[in-house]
Write a structure and sequence with these properties.
87 residues; alpha+beta; six-stranded antiparallel sheet; 30% helix; 39% strand
Length: 87
């Protein structure tokens, strides 16, 4: 199982917890925000919090988070090095 990792969009911090099968629990500024899953190469979907059913309407923030997750997964060492440089 992959380890949790952090991402940022602007001044917003996200903690990403991999759940397997391209599903991730996303915490936004310390609070659970969403459960998301990669739908296809360009689209990410968010699950309804109450029913856990995928919501297929477009969500720009979810797609931005998803793109950052994909980039992190392609090169996790680079992301960690960038974090070390900021400290």
């Amino acid at each position: 199982m992959q380890q949790p990792f952090d991402l940022e969009i602007g001044d917003i911090n996200y903690a990403i917890f991999p759940e397997g099968n391209d599903i991730y629990i996303v915490f936004k500024d310390g609070k659970e925000y969403a459960q998301i899953q990669k739908d296809d190469a360009e689209q990410w979907i968010k699950f309804d919090k109450e029913t856990a059913i995928p919501v297929f309407e477009y969500d720009e923030e979810v797609n931005q988070i998803g793109k950052l997750i994909s980039a992190y997964l392609l090169n996790p060492e680079q992301e960690e090095e960038d974090d070390d440089l900021e400290d």
